[in-house]
Design goal:
heterodimer, A: 8 strands, B: 321 residues, alpha/beta, five-stranded parallel β-sheet
């Protein structure tokens, strides 16, 4: 299973994205990070830490569970419904610049669901998308504003992001389905 | 947040929720954990998610209910299901239609789920056999009221962070109570020590076999209890005389502040409602600091959302095979 990003590289990637965010938004004023459960919210917390180191300002973070907004809910013939987890956005998103964070950008359907979910919480001034890996194969017109790494993949491959908080190690790898 | 018990499964394998007796411990934990996530939706400015968009849910109530029916309806609406309410008093039931015919006619209009309350025990089981739609029992006679027991467990977990090892005293009209039957099943499955108490005439025969301790002394039941749950004296179901008078019932079995002193310092007081103040519970206790009675009502919506969501997923698996 080829590793395409190790812990070192992941750290540097997040630092680079943080600088891009600060540059584009001229600081972190009225900026808040919302991560998509389960790995996006871990990434959001890490990115917030890096942003705080750069600007010396606190950055707010939240976690979004999009299960109840999925377009494939109730359409699976086999396999369990995903477990619904708690959404925790402890601040008003009205008029804020929201950075939506996910680990892998693939079909774009998760992001579509996340946009719907976010907008139920208020009217943000702007939503920007941050992903650690963009693997292509979009099915919806969605594009990330900040990308950690573009990884061309085939449909038979799957991309695994492991984070030390949830999986014990920092690593991104690509594997083919039948391995 | 409750994190100590994590459900190892992620779906219910049932089409229906007829009673707690059909659920495993893991399934109960799954419902309670899903309800945790559902509760947050009720705290949002827009209290609605699209999960059950396009699903139709019929609330078929043959018995009076405000709390349960309203709670189900709010839960259905928060999940974006289309809901309709049929109360027996305004339906063809008054023209003499049987339960089966009513159900078959509803079924012909292809609802996805039917929430049923009926005065006869077993009415929901009958409907589950003839309907493709998922059936949710909202109380059948003196049999079960599973969503009430689930919301009670949710409320207990919220306060005590666990259920295993707690002493739960259930006091009142045990004989006529479907809430008792569902709660005993659920609490014993999750490892609580359940005590039941009430007049001997209202003690269901064979209740000890369910793994509970029985006593006619309220003081013994309340002694060191973590949770005290009162049950309504159901005069409308009583044919004949079970105790001399309501005043005497209150004197011997009513929950007063004095009696409550025997319980643990952090005891919580529960009641499924509607309450008879001055009969099974003193107003001072009902409105007192230990009372979580209104929290139970609030939690009911989240628990019913969880049940609807999980069953809608489960029903799909059953029919798609």
């Amino acid at each position: 299973m080829p590793v395409i990003m190790d812990a070192d590289r992941m750290g540097r990637t997040l630092t680079r994205i943080a600088h891009e965010i600060v540059e584009r938004n001229r600081g972190t004023e009225r900026l808040a990070l919302v991560g998509i459960r389960t790995r996006g919210d871990v990434l959001a917390k890490r990115l917030a830490k890096v942003l705080e180191q750069i600007t010396n300002e606190p950055v707010r973070t939240g976690a979004l569970d999009i299960t109840l907004y999925r377009d494939d809910l109730m359409r699976h013939v086999v396999g369990p419904q995903p477990l619904v987890r708690r959404t925790e956005i402890p601040f008003s998103i009205d008029d804020q610049k929201i950075l939506l964070i996910d680990d892998v950008l693939y079909t774009g359907r998760t992001i579509r669901a996340a946009l719907d979910a976010l907008i139920d919480f208020g009217r943000p001034k702007e939503i920007q998308l941050v992903v650690l890996v963009d693997r292509g194969h979009r099915e919806l017109p969605i594009k990330a504003d900040y990308v950690g790494k573009n990884v061309p993949t085939s449909l038979q491959e799957s991309v695994q992001v492991r984070l030390s908080e949830t999986d014990g190690t920092d690593e991104v790898s690509v594997s083919s389905e039948h391995e | 947040m409750i994190t100590q018990q994590v459900a190892p499964i992620s779906k219910l394998r049932h089409k229906d929720l007829l009673g707690i007796s059909d659920l495993t411990r893991d399934e109960i934990l799954l419902i309670l954990e899903t309800a945790e996530a559902m509760r947050e939706i009720g705290e949002r400015p827009i209290k609605k998610v699209p999960a059950l968009r396009g699903k139709t849910v019929v609330n078929l109530f043959f018995e009076a209910s405000t709390r349960t029916r309203t709670s189900f309806e709010i839960a259905e609406k928060r999940l974006s299901a289309d809901t309709l309410n049929i109360a027996a008093g305004t339906s063809s039931v008054v023209k003499g239609e049987t339960l089966v015919d009513t159900a078959l006619n509803l079924e012909a209009m292809a609802p996805d789920m039917i929430v049923v309350r009926h005065a006869y025990s077993g009415a929901c089981h009958l409907l589950s056999r003839i309907c493709r739609a998922g059936i949710i029992n909202a109380g059948d006679g003196m049999h079960e009221h599973p969503t009430q027991a689930l919301l009670d467990a949710f409320t207990i977990r919220e306060h005590k962070k666990r259920i295993a090892g707690l002493k739960v005293a259930i006091i009142g009209d045990l004989l006529h109570s479907r809430v008792l039957r569902s709660n005993v099943q659920l609490l014993t499955k999750l490892g609580a020590e359940v005590w039941v108490s009430g007049p001997p005439t209202l003690m269901p025969p064979g209740i000890e076999r369910e793994g509970v301790r029985t006593t006619t002394s309220v003081d013994e039941a309340v002694e060191g209890a973590d949770v005290v749950m009162l049950l309504r004296v159901q005069l409308e179901r009583m044919q004949g005389s079970f105790f001399p008078s309501l005043r005497e019932y209150f004197t011997v079995f009513g929950m007063t502040r004095e009696r409550l002193r025997r319980a643990k310092q952090d005891v919580i007081i529960m009641h499924p409602g509607p309450m008879n103040r001055g009969v099974e519970i003193d107003s001072e206790v009902a409105d007192g600091p230990y009372s979580v009675i209104l929290e139970q009502v609030a939690n009911g919506v989240a628990v019913r959302m969880a049940v609807l969501y999980l069953l809608a997923g489960g029903a799909e698996h059953e029919t798609a095979v």
